[in-house]
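step: validate -> pass
step: tokenize input -> pass
step: predict -> running
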Amino acid sequence: MKLLLMSGGRHPYEESTPVLKGFLESAGHDVTLREDAEALTDGTLDSSDALVFNTLRAGEMVLDGSQQESLKSYISSGKGFVCIHISGCVPEEWHDYGEITGGGWVMGKSFHPPYSNFRVDVSNCSHPCAMGLDGFDTDDELYMNIDYRAGNEVFLEADFVGGAFAQNREGAEKIEMAGGTFPLAWTRSYGSGKVFVTLLGHDGRSQANKGFQEVVLNGVSWVTS
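step: predict -> pass
step: emit ->
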């Protein structure tokens, strides 16, 4: 498949994007990598089978009106969208983005315990993106208190025992984090298009995880089927 991979923003994309591009290409996909949002309006997006976001488009990098409309039209017309980690961040300037992604990180509201190793569980084995996938351990961030919309078909989750943890990174002020089961990957529809979201994939180490790669490859296959 011909994929447009968008990168860039305030995250370690210099680590993760080469890993992501590498395993997508190893699986046989034709990947065009861009950081400039003009790729959404200059014809590059329209010639792609699916759009892959490994990028934080918030603050100074938020998409402008024409770029937002292009992305919405592309997906709703029947094309695929793969959204990784904080790429699903719902910016104040574009709250409706959450209707495409089904939710995601919200600046100033969402949080996670420090980057650590935890278990990822397959919660819906019959989901097409879970085919051939077993649970796996990963080094990553476990997002909590996210924007979460109705209509998501969750297939990956993680359990968390709860307690007082440094907010987002070691050395930060500790806050109380409630235990529970948290969604890590889901699919949804937007118009006639298919949307795949995973909250996993913080950095190069996270994306080098074989379980993560299987999840993303399944997602690409699903949104382009």
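step: describe -> Helices lie at 13-26, 65-76, 97-101, 204-208, 210-223.
step: cleanup -> pass
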